[in-house]
Design goal:
single chain; 95 residues; alpha+beta; SH3 type barrels; 2 domains; 2 helices; 31% strand
């Protein structure tokens, strides 16, 4: 039994770096915004349609009568909806 446990541990240690790289790749990818697409906040509330997408992938929206730029690094797809990890009040504070 000790030999079996040793083999399993060795196998896990060899695959751990590959698993870590896969997890990092999955979490570092961001959603691609498109003009006209609806953007939701982290709480699932609709914010606004995206007016334009900057060269770096950030999304520009008009919220409360002001243009706000939402960083691409905050964008992801949650339940099929383009979502920012920011709350509405955080976006307004960035203006």
């Amino acid at each position: 039994m000790n030999k079996t446990v040793s083999v399993l541990l060795a196998s896990l240690l060899m695959t751990a770096p590959a698993l870590a790289q896969t997890a990092a790749a999955t979490t570092s990818s961001h959603a691609e915004a498109k003009a006209g697409q609806m953007l939701n906040d982290v709480d699932g509330r609709r914010l606004a349609q995206i007016d334009q997408v900057d060269g770096d992938g950030s999304a520009e929206i008009i919220i409360d009568g002001h243009v706000a730029t939402i960083p691409a690094t905050t964008l992801s797809v949650v339940n099929g909806h383009l979502t920012t990890s920011l709350k509405k009040n955080q976006i307004i504070a960035m203006q």
